[in-house]
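New to this. Explain the following:
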Amino acid sequence: MNSGELKRAKKHIRREVLAQRDALGPQERDRLGALVIERALGLPEVDSARTVMAFWTFGSELPTMPLIEALVAGGVRVALPCIADGDLEARTWRPGDPTSTTSFGAQEPAGGVVLDPNDLDVVITPAVAFDRAGRRVGYGGGFYDRFFPRSPRAFRLGAAFAVQLADGDLPAGHFDLRVHAVVTESETVRCESGS
């Protein structure tokens, strides 16, 4: 698949999956999100983590604030992604700390300490869609694909609703890096490869 075909295939998946995710009402997202978070917190990699990078919910994504609050309450140092000079960096954040609005409408830490990516034990990873081999279709910026090599020891965990888990293989290029596991409200998928 050439780069043009790959872009078109990903665009098609984004359109289809986002329509399904957007169709979940806010109460249903909260209900299903609580199940995803319970499953994520039960993973040994998350349970033993000292430093976790989560993500701030944007649009119809999985609501992550309850996860962040549970991690902080358990003594885990939490970071959120922040875009700086075109790249992702992990900045410490706790509920109540200030945030700023990005150009596309999401929130990111307004302050916090920039962490060395090697200090992260777990990176909870957003995406539009995941497959059972750990492939992901993100929003098209490539931020996580560029960040993952800088954080090689981190356990990469996809967290999403079941409607975001593809039945077959997602299209991927050589630069698309995989997650090690995906949690949804109905299952935990240990992926074949996290490379």
In short: The chain has one domain: 3-190. The longest strand covers residues 77-84.
